[in-house]
Amino acid sequence: QILARPLQLLYTKFTNRVAKSVWIGEKGVIAPNVKKGIHNVSIDDNRMWRGSRFTFNPILMGNEDKVVETWFAGEHGDVGGSYYTKGMPDTSLKYMMEWME
After folding, report:
1. Which of 7, 18, 22, 74 fits a 20 to 30 Å CA distance from 28?
2. First-to-last C-alpha distance (Å) of the chain
3. C-alpha to C-alpha distance for 40 and 95, rounded to whole angstroms
């Protein structure tokens, strides 16, 4: 069994079905070999309102003790760094790096 280092980013997309992932699992539980994780979530995420077949809600890890979930201002790309908005993705990255130390 591989012992994983801290999982730094939880990112799963899904449509109208439950997400399936090695890390998250089918029931929203982190794999036992992951000791701790951080989930940075965008509070202004509007992807769930677009009405397309890619509409989804974020997977929240509120019941998982090994995961710290923190909400940040901005859309999904602002928090994850897909959009270049000076300072916004830097804030969530800095928080994640400090938390992992």
Report:
1. 74
2. 24
3. 9
Separation of alpha carbons 83 and 81, rounded Å: 5
DSSP lists the bridge partners of residue 34 as: 4
Q: Mean pLDDT across the stretch 57-81?
A: 73
Taking the CB of residue 36, how many other CB atoms lie within 10 A of it?
A: 16
Q: Please calculate the CA angle 73-79-80 and round it to the nearest 5 degrees.
A: 170
> With 70 as the cut, is the pLDDT of residue 7 above it?
no
The model's pTM is: 0.58
Backbone angles phi, psi at 91, to 5 degrees: -65, -50
